[in-house]
Amino acid sequence: xxxxxxxxxxxxVEVPRGTTINKAAKxxxxxxxxxxxxxxxxxxxxxxxxxxRICVVEVEGRRNLAPSCATNCEEGMVxxxxxxxxLNARRTVMEFILSDHPKDCLICPKSGNCELQTMAHRLGxxxxxxxxxxxxxxxxxDTSPSIIRDQDKCIMCRRCEMMCNEVQTVGALSAVNxxxxxxxxxxxxxxxxxxxxxxCGQCVAVCPTGALTEVDHTPEVLRALADPTKTVxxxxxxxxxxxxxxxxxxxxxxxxxxxxxxxxRTLGFDYVFDTDFAADLTIMEEGTELLDRLTxxxxxxxxxxxxxxxxxxxxxVNFFEEYFPDLKDVPSSAKSPQQMFGAIxxxxxxxxxxxxxKDLVVISIMPCLAKKYECQRxxxxxxxxxxVDFSISTRELGAFIKQANLDFNNLEDSDFxxxxxxxxxxxxxxxxxxxxxxxxxxxxxxxxxxxKLARLDFEELRGLEGVRSATIDFDGLPxxxxxxxxxxxxxxxxxxxxxxxxxxxxxxxxxxxxxxIGGGGQPLHHGNSEIIKARAAAIYREDSRKPLRKSHxxxxxxxxxxxxxxxxxxxxxxxxxxxxxxxxxxxxxxKQ
Amino acid sequence: MSSIKxxxxxxxxxxxxxxxxxxxxxxxxxxxxxxxxxxxxxxxPAEVQEVISDELTVPVAKIYGVVTFYSFFTMTPRGKxxxxxxxxxxxxxxxxxxxLDEFKKELGLQVGQTTPDGxxxxxxxxxxxxxxxxxxxxxxxxxxxxxxxxxxxxxxKEYDS
Lengths: 592, 161
Hints:
The complex is a heterodimer. Chain A is α/β, with parallel strands linked by helices. Chain A has 18 helices and 23 strands.
């Protein structure tokens, strides 16, 4: 590889050609501040609009200052990162940004976790010259079922636009207008609810300020907990336990399953259950559907469409309803684990404890913002009573625990309640890309072949590459599996399905890069993909520690089928655990 | 900001499709497609942008971004007599702003708006290349030079019939 040598702050450094000044400086331990720039290295995601100009440096022989995030190193370059000129420019840029930014940090949902606030502090900004005469651009606040847009706080870093368009290919958000009124918005500045938004929440996950945040449902949860007539049960998604600790200063990748259960019990939930249980149930239903379609397909039944696509991810469901409605009979009809849990809790479990479903409140803790929308979908309620009442994110739970004065780091571990808290390792790995299909393979293989699997770790299905494929030998029958995370990657596989080129029997899709561990409701990664990797490792660690690691071996799943559901894909299972999809593509009205 | 709601007729949809296909439905040709569509419809209402979005497979939010970025594109239908006041340097220093203010007052319009009867619309532009005549006003294809605020009422009267 061709390398070049340059000098930064009087230190020599050798870097490969094509390296930016900012990255070269990092090698020397020089941390040039960046604001609009963001990189998730392991996920191959980069936002580099060179728009904010916070990262400018002085390059000898160059007339103007250079944005270090977007300027490549050249042989013999002499760079200075903290001259008076640079520091003054950096300060002025920041003052300009702040002059058009609300000063309500005290009550901003991002306070303490805001990159703009951190930067203002780092640059030592103590006053904003001219702010008494400066106008502020204002926009109407937009609240959707999942996401709040408060564009007054937008600094035009355009990270959300990059995520929405380049990574997710959803195209709901774009930079609009110019000059002072420039902002990022859906088409015609309509509300997000009327756009193509899938509520994946990746815009929220990367927003450096309080412009994009989640709808906070903790007040509703508090109200339910305070109501003596209600029995309140909670389910926790697999990815939450691998990230919640970060809210309390723990190392990324710390598993806090036991502490989380104790915290939830202390908060007053009557039953602390696990979405992992419902993930095991999903495998029973989805796996059976896969084997049924596969068998029919192999027997020449043309109505059995392959590949089967997983349907656990609500952002993904919203995506194909919007962009691939013609393929809506291809995904599995199995509900997501969140909704399966709600359906079982408000039927089987409500009966067991003799509580009317109207007096039973089901709360879910999710790494996801699309789940907030999903639980509000009409088809997931009975006579207006939703199967899952409210969904709160990992971040909201963390804040809730702090408000309840719990010393989280020193809580004792405790176990989930029975029976909806029992799960296997297969349920745990639902939280990361490749996990759902690995769990499905573990069960489908044994059910199909009648043989025990020799190994349970399918390394070939793991990793962070955007699109992956593997062929698993089902005792002589090769099963082709595709995996995509990030909706742009899913689109590639879907285009092949549409054109009939797809060779896969089954495809797993998760809307968020990394899967649920990188969800829009997780503690903010601030552009550090090591955090996502550490969470994935934690998920696989939890799986490997479980005594049972195959969904069909979960004793309570077996009991639930014996006592209540009959067998997988039975009529009752279909009624409670399966759903159907809608064509949500916008239609052009033609005047007659 | 919102657009005037219209439903498209089938022939309008066909026209947009024809324009898009004349550029091979290439997303890179978005600006050219928008030019042609505005030439045909006089403006670019939301529905037209929706059809273009479908044809070029460009998200409609992106198209709206382009339409709101370039001042040439408009989402409001232009009046029968579009009035443009040159705000280029020469016109500006010779009092174009006062002329513009007078048009605003006389017609009760802001820049970018159209009178409710659809007769006049008001816009400003940058330099029509007639700096010797500054300040310059154009109404449709007709050019008025050395316009003073006092002339405005009479100019509008010309279009009264």
